[in-house]
Amino acid sequence: MWFLGLGILAIALKLLEIGPVANWSWLVVLAPFGLAMAWWAWADWSGYTKRKAVQREDERKQDRIERQRSQLGMLNARSRKRR
Question: Are 33 and 4 in contact (CB under 8 A)?
Answer without folding.
Answer: yes
